[in-house]
Write the structure tokens for this entry.
Amino acid sequence: ELIREGIEVAVATVPPEEFDVAVVVRDDAGDPVRGAEIVRELEESDSVVAVVGMLLEDVLLSAGQARSTPIPLVSPTARSGDGAGEAVYTLEGADPAAAESIAEYAASRAFQKIA
């Protein structure tokens, strides 16, 4: 509930003329099969640009493997996204894939300094 509220508050701070975004809520109930179904359903929509959720590692793994497109998946609580495929990120614990992606982006933009 707190994570959903945090996402909604963050979205509300973005002026609609800058970025038109809507929050769609689905509950995987901690079930890897349901998590995979939800991701497959959401990736069918052209308007979905990312999926935030999958609180448990096994749900994140299942959801990542179920995708037919590399739609980004972000888990605020899973410790690792290893084995879930590309464009899978976790906010809890060390995430070498995210660090590598950020470093590649910074290098591609020729950033000299990152705070």
User: Anything to note?
Assistant: The first helix runs from residue 2 to 12. Residues 100 and 106 are 10 Å apart (CA to CA). The chain has one domain: 2-108.
